[in-house]
Amino acid sequence: MQLPDDFVQQMTTLLGKDEYMLLQDALNTIAPTSIRVRDDNCIPHQDIITDKVAWCQDGYYLSERPSFTTDPLLHAGAYYVQEASSMFIAQIVEQYIKKPVTALDLCAAPGGKSTLLLSHLPAGSLLIANEINYKRANILNENISKWTKCSNKSKNDISSSYAIVTNNQASDFAKLGREQFDFVLCDMPCSGEGMFRKDADSIGEWSLKNVMMCSNRQREIARDIWDSLKCGGIMIYSTCTYNTQENEMNVKWIADELGAEILSCHISSEWGITGNLLSGESFPCYHFLPHKTKGEGFFCAILHKLPTDDDRSHNMVRKSILSKIEKQMHVMPLHIFEADVAQCEVDYNTALRFLHGEAITLPQDTPRGIITLLYHSQQIGQVKNIGSRANNLCPKAWRIRKHFT
To answer: Taken in order 149, 150, 151, 154, is the CA torsion positive or negative?
Structure first.
């Protein structure tokens, strides 16, 4: 892997020559493959699972990368293919979020962290998953729809967690009023140094100029969303890059300029997580470096907005913000799955035909009308059974385009 000279110099200065060489060697190895499962009762690819992700109870490493596209369980939302380092968000949520919250995942596509939040936030939470890019917002919408199997009942059931997908800029959330969210995840657009091993194009796009541009943009996003965080609320600032310009220096800026308190998270020394790399600073933050941790490059810090008294109930806030979002934001409607309908278990070939967009034939004793298809007891979608055939209700944008035999 040919890395930019400026990147080599930057990281050598940051880590020292010997440790930089260890990082460089790690970047020339194959990136580990990891998944996060929705339900411990259905853990796919058990034959190639090698280990659990230490900082996420539902994360697993695989010994190889299977054909995920042709696995119906992926399309059923039984698991999500997610980079292991970024699953550390679960550790923070488990430590700091103890009751239902109104949460915002600000830069959410393609949906790895949003689906993680839906699994780890307390029941009854409301998650707004936002993505500024329209095409990516559609992918986010698909992944959340599959993960949650959203039904007509979900929105008004305050005992369950619910997600809304929006397609807006960070500054648009000011329309909702101040202090709307208990929890905000800002997985910032960045220079992508942590993706060099998985995405060769990111190497060619990297430059010191781009690092500075990203750093400035990250500060702008943080400033735009800070007023939307409630006093007493938690913000996670994260990137998939290594440099201190986009990481520690921006966290320090948020603390100094916006008044954030920087919090720590319980970790084990066995995980190999690296702390603060900014010279002269010691505030808590967390680097995942591929030569020390089993995963790609990732950085995060926990920011606390100092509290004031607020006696509004969570249910009151949830209803209020739902109304505001529907009126003032660009909402991407989730795909609705009909609830309380008959189910039919199908085999692998039938599942693939359905996911490919074809009409299928169900057993003669299958009831007429809307039917939920199951593969290994996991919902993969719905059809309308008219007897001679079952018409496909899988959204066209979700269908597998890869041809198979």
So the answer is: positive
